[in-house]
Amino acid sequence: MVNLEWYRTFKAIYKTGTLTGAADSLFISQPGVSLHLSSLEAYVGYKLFDRTGRKMMPTERGKVLFNAVSEPLSKLEDVEKNFQKSTEKLTPTISVGMCFETFQTTLEQYVSTLPFNLIISFGQYPEMLDQLDKGILDLIITPKKGASPNIEHEAFSSEQIILVGGKNVDTESFQKIVTTKGTEHIEDWLKQEKWYGTTGDMEHLFQFWIMNFGHKPNFRPNYIVPNLNSIIRCLKGGTGLAVVPDFLCKNEIENGDLKLIWEGEKKLENTLYFGCRKKTNYQSEIDHIKGLFRKVMSKNDHVAHL
Predict the structure, then answer these.
(1) Please, what is the Cα angle at 192 between 186 and 195, to 5 degrees?
(2) d(CA 306, CA 303)
């Protein structure tokens, strides 16, 4: 009989495009992902992905299988989360969605102090908005508003997207170009450097590039790592560039481990929102988490409060 975890792993590979991305989203090892995939391929009797470099490209049969199992899997996951809530009457369970880096820099340090149960979910913002609307998530932290009339958004801070580099990057030559030459020369200089990106999301880089140069970057990062915090740690080696939210690297810049290379001709800022349903049974727990976020923001003073 087929193991349902094989299907979950298959779905994760399909959505992330890499074995590493699937492993990160499922919180299992990459060898475990590979084992699940090979077991499922052996069970169904055909290849589900073609391996092209680091990317996993679904075969035609893989696409057919995904279309067949995606919706049933989503429904089972919804049932699992809602059942878990309904069976825990004494201690409430709150499900919160946000990006991995935001969790690490804000809420992670307070998890052990919470007087209620907590499920943290990482995902793309459209998916989290949909899960919030359906009642799977109770609170999300997002830079994007949804359109559902059932959801209310509360702005609580903002983040600036900046270009940073290792401490050994030659910023003097770059600043000369910025002050004496046009954006075309700035772009040429930047493209000569080594770049870092993440496996799942290039949105910050795309937004920054479009705002300053009028088009998406026509190059791929040299090094693809799991998340933005990994980029910060890699840049501390001394070289390379990346576009990241300012709050993730404030301390490293102040300590001299990283350099603020450029804020851009125009500053790129994202407003951060709390998103929750207008009707909820967990208002006190949600308010508690909101208070922790505000505490961290106030203590570190790393974003502009609204």
Answers:
(1) 100
(2) 9
Q: What ranges do the domains of the chain cover?
A: 4-87, 93-157+270-302, 159-269
Query: What tokens were used for 103?
Result: 């969790």
Contact 228, 164 (CB under 8 A): no
Q: Where are the alpha helices (DSSP H) in the chain?
A: 4-16, 19-26, 30-44, 60-86, 100-105, 125-134, 171-180, 183-191, 203-213, 228-235, 250-255, 283-300
**Identity of the residue numbered 42:** A
Cα dist from 154 to 25, 141, 157, 280, whole Å: 27, 10, 9, 15
Q: How far is CA 164 from CA 236, 264, 302, in A?
A: 11, 11, 16
Asked whether the domain spanning 159-269 has the same topology as the one spanning 93-157+270-302, the reply is yes
The CATH number of the domain covering residues in 4-87: 1.10.10.10
Domain 93-157+270-302 adopts which CATH fold?
D-Maltodextrin-Binding Protein; domain 2 (3.40.190)
The superfamily (CATH) of domain 159-269 is Periplasmic binding protein-like II (3.40.190.10)
Which amino acid is it at 51? R
User: Hey, what are 271's tokens?
Assistant: 């407003």
Burial 257-270 (b: 16+ CB within 10 A, else e): bbbebbebeeebeb
> pLDDT per position in the chain (306 positions), as tens?
678 889 989 999 999 999 988 888 887 878 888 889 999 999 899 999 998 877 999 999 999 999 999 888 888 877 777 666 555 457 889 999 998 888 988 999 999 999 999 999 988 888 899 889 888 899 999 988 888 899 999 999 888 999 999 999 999 999 999 998 888 899 999 999 999 998 766 888 999 999 999 999 998 899 999 888 899 999 999 999 999 999 889 889 999 999 999 999 889 998 899 999 998 889 999 999 999 999 887 765 543 333
